[in-house]
Amino acid sequence: MKIAFIGLGIMGKPMAKNLLKAGHSLRVYDRNTPAVEELEKAGATACKSAVETVEGVDMVITMLPNSPHVKSVMIEDDKVAEHMPKTAVFVDCSSINPVASREIAKVLKEKGIDMLDAPVSGGEPKAIDGTLSFMVGGKQEVFDKCKDVLSAMGDSVVLCGDVGAGNVTKLCNQTIVAINIAAVAEALQMGQMCGVSPEKVFAAIRGGLAGSTVMNAKAPMMMDQNFTPGFRIDLHIKDLNNVVDAADAANAPIPLTQSVLEMMKVLRKDGDSVYDHSALLKYYQKLSGEVLHR
Ligand code: NAD
Question: Of 10, 50, 206, 225, which has the maximum CB count within 10 A?
Fold first, then answer.
C-alpha cells in the first residue's frame, strides 16, 4: 500500500520503519527534520509538509501528541483532509480525546473519507518490535481494509466499536494503569512504614489476586528509585485530562481517576512529571518523608 505517515516521534518513527519492512511504500512528514531524514535513509519518501505526504496515497496515518495536533493537521491549519484522495482511509494512531476523534470523523465523512481511531498501548519497545496492541474504532468494512497494515506494527488489533471507541478503550487502559500504579505505591510505602520490607510484600503477593502486570513492571522500579521513562507522567496527565473531558461529556463518575490526576499534578508542580509514571511513589514519599527501599 502507498501510505502517508505524519508524526515521527518516539512511537511514530519505529512504527513507520515496520511498515517499510512489511513492504509498504511510505511518504513521511514531521516538524522535526532529522526524524524525516532518518526515515528517508530507511527507504521512505521525505516530504516538506503534511499536505505533500498525501499525494496518491491509499492511507494516511497520524501519530501525534494530542487532539489539538491531530485537528490542526487534519482539519484546521494544514487541512490535510481537503487534499487526501477520496479513496484513501484516515487512521489516527495518536491517543486523543474520543470526542475529538468523532469531530474529525464527521468532517471527513462530509468529504466521503472513512476514518479509524487506532491508539496503541505498549510503548517504544513494542513499537520497535512491532508488537503493539491496537484499540480500534470505526466501521467493520474499513477495519477489514486496514487490519493487515496495523498488524505490521502490532500483534493485537481489536475493533472496539464505531469511531471514538478506540480512544475510549485507550482511556480505560490509562485509567486502570494510573490507579493501579498509585495503589502499588501506596501499599508498598504503607507496608514499609508498618515494618515489612517492600521486597517481601511484593514476593508474597505478586502471584495472588493483588498481582498485576503493572505491579510486576513498576514495583521493582519503585524499590530501586529508578524513574527513567518509560511513560512520562506529563503524557499520563494528558491522557487523564482526556478521561475527565470524555467522562464529563457522558456524566460518568471517575473519583479515583480524579484523585490520581491531582497527585500527578502535584508532582508536575515540583518538576517530577518528566519521570516515569512509577514516580507516583514520590507523592507518598513527599507526604511521609520516607524513601522506599528494597
Ligand atoms: P512524541 O512527542 O515523541 O512524537 C510526536 C511527534 O509529532 C513529534 O516528532 C512532533 O515533532 C510531531 N508533531 C507534532 N505536531 C506536529 C505537526 N503539526 N506536524 C507534524 N509533526 C508534528 O510522542 P510519542 O511518544 O511518539 O506519542 C505519540 C502518541 O502516542 C501520543 O498520543 C502518546 O500519548 C501515544 N503513546 C505514546 C506511548 C509512549 O510510550 N511514548 C505509548 C502509547 C501511546
Answer: 50
Q: Mutation test of ligand 1: which of 63, 74, 129, 274 has the most ligand atoms closer than 8 Å to its C-beta?
A: 63
Residue nearest to atom 21 of ligand 1 (CA): 30
Q: What is the pLDDT of residues 93-117, one digit of tens each?
A: 999 999 999 999 999 999 999 999 9
Q: Are 89 and 36 in contact (CB under 8 A)?
A: no
Which H/E stretch holds residue 160? strand 154-161
Topology of domain 2-161, CATH: Rossmann fold (3.40.50)
In the chain, CATH 1.10.1040.10 sits at 168-288
The three three-digit cell numbers of residue 222, written as one number: 519503585
Which value, to the nearest 10 degrees, does the dihedral of the CA atoms of residues 70, 76, 78, 84 take? 80
CA angle, corner 28, sides to 23 and 32, nearest 5? 135
pLDDT tens per residue across span 108-163: 999 999 999 999 999 888 999 999 999 999 999 999 999 999 999 999 999 999 99
Enter the C-alpha cell of residue 47: 516530504
Question: Which phi-psi region, left, alpha or beta, contains residue 251 (left: φ > 0; alpha: ψ -120 to 50)?
Answer: left
Say what the pLDDT of residue 123 is: 85
Q: Which ligand 1 atom minimizes the distance to the CA of 35?
A: 9
List, by residue range, all CATH 3.40.50.720 domains of the chain: 2-161
